[in-house]
Design brief:
The chain is mostly helical and 151 residues long. It is built from five helices and no strands.
């Protein structure tokens, strides 16, 4: 039982680590496509809000897609590594990422359509968790009757 708990915690942690790496990659990509203004201070929250308000719609559309893929991949991994490939592992990862995205979107002035993430995230972690379970194989029915021994 302790091994199962450790495996579950490890699978959720691995999913979150992969999500962190992927989100850092998405943010790196977006900073290349829409760099911070020269001379601006990225540590200044007001400057960050102004920068986000100027994001082109195309870059934000790519971010929605990339965040969705990151949620899918991390929930898939957590479910795949979790005890019994139970989807709860991926759902936990997805729920944590969903909450983080809501927090991020509430703090920064994204356009209203960007809240599409409220649909993309649950779909992504649902399908990531679902596909990681793999195909459920059914064994043929077992004949429980006693066979007579033929001599």
């Amino acid at each position: 039982m302790v091994g199962a708990i450790i495996r579950s915690v490890g699978s959720v942690s691995a999913g979150l680590i992969v999500a962190l790496i992927l989100v850092i990659g998405v943010e790196g990509m977006s900073s290349i496509l829409h760099p911070f203004p020269a001379g601006g201070d990225p540590a200044d929250f007001e400057a960050c809000k102004a920068h986000v308000a100027r994001y082109p719609a195309g870059v934000l559309a790519l971010v929605v897609l990339a965040w969705g893929m990151a949620v899918f991949a991390s929930s898939w991994l957590a479910t795949r590594l979790g005890t019994g490939r139970h989807p709860a592992h991926g759902i936990v990862v997805g729920a944590i990422l969903f909450a983080a995205a809501i927090f991020n979107m509430a703090m920064l002035p994204y356009p209203n359509w960007f809240w599409l993430n409220l649909i993309v995230f649950p779909i992504s972690f649902f399908w990531g968790s679902r596909l990681a379970q793999g195909r459920q194989t059914k064994l043929p029915p077992v004949d429980v009757r006693v066979r007579r021994r033929i001599d």
